[in-house]
């Protein structure tokens, strides 16, 4: 599966066709189907999880928690007003299970660490960033979710900014919901899977 640029109607149809109607995942960073911001057409990335191979969009590093064959869809909706939306939908994960997820700087690789650090709108001069002043849901893109009884979930981040030329390249799925306290802010446990996406 691959990234495509589609009109809003086409994007919504693809999401529904690949993932079904789904249920919104509970949690602070989850939401219902995306609301279209006025602006460019959405960019949609679809991937089916499996072992890493070059050119594959969705890679699992933990086949127990992110089973091969599970499906991910990422939609990026840049708005003309300087705002944007990132939407993540998943199908085929463990039922009733909580995961963390963030947008990362590099594409997926053979190891979870290959995706690099989180994308930050305002970069922390220190790396890795665990300062809540930088590692927070307003400056990064957090997409934590909890699956339903069928292993499906969706998460949505509404941003007060758009990605610049310093585009991120992936979404990493983590083992835990994201921590927010000093020294742990932005961390969410091991990297379980990765989706190389277009933003």
Automatic annotation (TrEMBL):
Record-annotated Superoxide dismutase copper/zinc binding domain positions: 84-194
Signal peptide stretch: 1-23
GO MF: metal ion binding; superoxide dismutase activity
Enzyme class: oxidoreductase
The enzyme's E.C. designation: 1.15.1.1
Biased composition (Basic and acidic residues): 111-125
Membrane-spanning residues: none
Family: Belongs to the Cu-Zn superoxide dismutase family.
Listed name of the protein: Cu-Zn family superoxide dismutase
Natural source organism: Sphaerisporangium siamense
